[in-house]
Recover the amino acids of this structure.
């Protein structure tokens, strides 16, 4: 089995890491780049495949040269054998379709065709969830999205997966598909390692990967638009159908109620609040006097 | 100076005449003449109301006078209504001299651009072989691109998702919104509107219908009834494809069928045996909208990829407007500006909820990016009332299903136990990021307080869902997205809403705003939630909640007092 996982660097949106300017705009320059949190689930699926089905795994990202560090981080977490970075000024500021065209070309440019391509659902900065499916459309492979569990049967060249469907009701579908296929993992994805030898394999792979990760640049291939034979008008900003016209801070909620201040240290004050709450108290908690 | 002396005319003659006059000064002179001699009240009212109509927009602005004195949001509304470039420049100077808010200045510049417009310059396009001689031609990307040149685009298409043989609510919401948007659209840009303004670009002289339609797309098994329902919810045309193999959503065939429907007979990528259809006369839809559900979002991405266009996902609103753009990718050169008409504006909460972005899908000088596409999160638009008397056209789409489109088999499916329902409870307790000091304890306290009520539910803010808090196993099952309250979660309206450690972002507010009584518990006296709560307990939830829980269980207010150096049972009150 040969798998490829798509990953992306995004601004770190976790509490405390984000900074804003006076107008409430996000200061991207001051916000550190981390691996897109949802890619974790794609990496888990790739790791499960490598541990259970063997073979090699690769990671691919599109972005500035600094994304090498994201790939290194990914290498350690997925025990990747090869890293690919699509990096070029012409690719910058791409929306999902321009990204999908670039990434699909990158995948077609690999020496060996992957059996499975994994993508995470939604990046934290764009949050569209479109790049995985659109890359798949360009490749014209079967697509399985919102995957929460996966079994691969390399001998039969097939996969079986469970996927989440939402709407007015929530459903789980069990699907079967041939490989190669693109798998978009859901944040609910759970890898399964039932056998002891899976766990042992884990340990061996970890040791082996640590060595590789120290010299990760030896395993890294960087492609620009010329190497991929991509027309600059069809990638990056110029190839993007959409633009962001305006970014506005989320407006402050307009004030509509007059809050009465309650001092938690004052019995009278608290009693007033409790008057509001008591009518809803559980039966056992009824005040004796009333 | 006055063409028409009102005193020489009867009021019945004056009506149409006055309404043709555009010059306010002339109207005022007429008003003066009338007042001096005949002084008829109805005539004066007629002229005055015409003056009012002509000066309405300016009037609003002049009264509000100064954008520097209002909030950014209010300023945005004011600026949008100003058409006078001089007035805009004054406002810009005032803002620069005053608060210098970047957002306000940008809005003023944008409005100035759109008022002044700019000359459409012919852009010379170098053939790709000359522009990029070092690349092979055709380049690798062309394989994926199925674009149209000089395409004709009309109508708004709404994908109607079904589940278990029923139209899902968000599809109905979208149909209602599409109806509203296209009614406005036809008023602004329709044949009648463009006739009045001397015709406008993009209207085909031989176009059959004139005004543009809402087209519902229904794909599935046994769904003719759904197509009829789509008309009741506002569609003019419902096009449907019925096949037992398509009972459940499948990516490849649904996308192929949708795109086959979307392409007109003259489309360069249309299948060979496609015949002309009476109900349409264009290459591709102008706009396409989808529900932002798992399957709807996937379909939107695939359809737009196949039609070589773009889209915004998870939009929270939609509107159509003209816009002037200076982005060089769209204008074809540095520094230029270009006016785009009838653009679908797609605002969406972005950056994990910190900002709103407005996304536009615009033609580039070298490629046409139509249809303009969007997916919309459920619950953003009102659920319309169906009108089963409404007339519309039902079109069954004719296409042979290709076996190659069905590589993915659905073996089985199970309905999940319906998630947590936070609505329909007397009380809702919600915790936010204020629990960060001890997230597990914070959840425990929230759950205990919930239990102290007869009929209560426990919810969370989006901040908890997106946080990296580590919860202990016993509370972890209470920290899932199914308990999220707010714009992208559930909307609740209990009698009593208790928000502990919730800062009060507007996206959260919309999820609980309709509650009868809102109690906030927060250590920050300036938290936004203070502005929209009835009681603001200024204190630490880790201290306040245990006391509230005890007090509710014993019915004793003294239990609820947070020890602040004062003895809890101190004789502060008489009883």
């Amino acid at each position: 089995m040969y798998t490829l996982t798509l990953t992306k660097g995004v601004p770190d949106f976790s509490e405390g890491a984000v900074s804003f300017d006076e107008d409430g705009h996000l200061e991207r320059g001051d916000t550190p780049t981390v691996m897109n949190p949802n890619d974790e689930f794609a990496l888990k699926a790739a790791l499960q495949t490598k541990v259970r089905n063997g073979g090699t795994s690769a990671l691919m990202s599109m972005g500035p040269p600094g994304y090498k560090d994201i790939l290194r981080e990914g290498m350690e977490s997925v025990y990747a054998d090869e890293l690919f970075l699509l990096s070029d000024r012409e690719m910058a500021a791409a929306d999902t379709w321009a990204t999908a065209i670039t990434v699909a070309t990158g995948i077609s440019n690999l020496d060996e065709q992957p059996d499975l391509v994994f993508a995470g659902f939604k990046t934290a900065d764009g949050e569209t969830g479109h790049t995985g499916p659109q890359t798949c459309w360009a490749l014209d492979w079967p697509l399985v999205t919102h995957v929460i569990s996966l079994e691969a049967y390399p001998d039969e060249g097939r996969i079986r997966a469970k996927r989440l469907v939402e709407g007015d009701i929530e459903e789980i579908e069990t699907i079967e598909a041939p490989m190669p296929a693109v798998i978009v993992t859901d944040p609910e994805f759970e890898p399964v390692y039932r056998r002891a030898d899976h766990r042992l394999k884990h340990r061996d792979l970890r040791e082996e990967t640590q060595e590789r990760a120290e010299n990760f640049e030896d395993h890294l291939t960087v492609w620009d638009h010329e190497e991929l034979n991509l027309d600059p008008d069809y990638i990056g900003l110029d190839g993007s159908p959409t633009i962001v016209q305006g970014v506005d801070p989320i407006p402050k909620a307009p004030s509509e109620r007059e809050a009465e201040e309650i001092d938690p240290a004052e019995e009278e004050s608290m009693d007033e609040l409790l008057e509001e709450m008591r009518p809803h108290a559980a039966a056992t908690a009824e005040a004796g006097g009333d | 100076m006055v063409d028409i002396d009102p005193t020489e005319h009867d009021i019945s003659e004056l009506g149409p005449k006055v309404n043709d006059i555009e010059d306010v000064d002339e109207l005022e002179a007429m008003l003066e003449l009338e007042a001096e001699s005949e002084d008829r009240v109805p005539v004066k009212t007629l002229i005055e109301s015409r003056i009012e109509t002509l000066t309405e927009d300016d009037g609003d602005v002049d009264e509000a006078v100064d954008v520097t004195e209002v909030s950014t949001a209010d300023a945005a509304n004011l600026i949008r209504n100003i058409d006078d470039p001089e007035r805009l420049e004054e406002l810009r100077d005032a803002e620069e001299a005053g608060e210098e808010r970047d957002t306000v200045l940008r809005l003023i510049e944008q409005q100035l651009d759109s008022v002044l417009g700019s000359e459409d310059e012919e852009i010379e396009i170098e053939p790709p072989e000359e522009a990029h001689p070092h690349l092979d031609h055709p380049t690798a990307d062309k394989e994926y691109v199925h674009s149209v040149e000089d395409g004709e685009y009309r109508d708004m298409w709404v994908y109607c998702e079904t589940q278990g043989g029923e139209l899902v609510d968000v599809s109905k919401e979208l149909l209602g919104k599409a109806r509203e948007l296209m009614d406005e659209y036809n008023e602004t840009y329709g044949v009648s509107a463009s006739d009045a303004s001397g015709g406008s670009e993009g209207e085909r002289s031989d176009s059959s219908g004139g005004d543009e339609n809402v087209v519902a797309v229904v794909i599935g098994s046994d769904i003719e009834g759904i197509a009829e329902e789509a008309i009741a919810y506002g569609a003019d045309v419902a096009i449907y494809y019925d096949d037992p193999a398509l009972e459940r959503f499948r990516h490849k065939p649904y996308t192929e069928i949708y795109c086959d429907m979307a392409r007109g007979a003259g489309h360069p990528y249309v299948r060979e045996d496609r015949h002309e259809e009476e109900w349409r006369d264009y290459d591709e839809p102008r706009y396409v909208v989808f529900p932002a559900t798992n399957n709807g979002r996937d379909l939107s991405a695939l359809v737009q990829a196949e039609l070589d266009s773009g889209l915004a996902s998870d939009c929270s609103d939609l509107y159509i407007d003209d816009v002037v753009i200076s982005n060089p990718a769209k204008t074809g050169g540095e520094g230029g500006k270009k006016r785009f008409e009838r653009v679908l504006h797609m605002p969406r909460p972005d950056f994990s909820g910190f900002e709103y972005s407005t996304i536009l899908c615009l033609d580039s000088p070298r490629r046409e990016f139509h249809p303009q596409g969007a997916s919309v999160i459920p619950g953003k638009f009102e659920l319309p009332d169906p009108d089963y008397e409404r007339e519309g056209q039902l079109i069954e789409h004719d296409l042979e299903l290709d076996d190659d489109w069905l590589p993915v088999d659905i073996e089985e499916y199970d309905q999940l136990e319906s998630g947590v329902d936070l609505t329909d409870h007397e009380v809702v307790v919600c915790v936010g990021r204020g629990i960060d000091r001890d997230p597990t304890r914070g959840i425990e306290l929230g759950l205990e307080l919930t239990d102290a009520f007869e009929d209560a539910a426990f919810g969370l803010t989006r901040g908890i869902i997106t946080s990296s808090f580590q919860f202990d196993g016993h509370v972890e099952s209470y920290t899932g997205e199914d308990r999220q309250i707010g714009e992208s979660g559930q909307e609740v309206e209990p009698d009593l809403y208790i928000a502990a450690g919730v800062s009060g972002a507007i996206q959260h507010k919309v999820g609980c705003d309709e509650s009868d009584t809102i109690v906030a518990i927060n250590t920050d006296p300036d938290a936004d939630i203070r502005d929209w709560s009835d009681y603001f307990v200024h204190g630490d939830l880790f201290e306040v909640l245990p006391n509230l829980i005890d007090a509710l269980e014993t019915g004793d207010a003294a239990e609820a007092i947070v020890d602040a150096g004062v003895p809890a049972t101190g004789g502060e009150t008489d009883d």
Summary: Chain A has one domain: 2-234. Residues 91 and 221 of chain A are 16 Å apart (CA to CA).
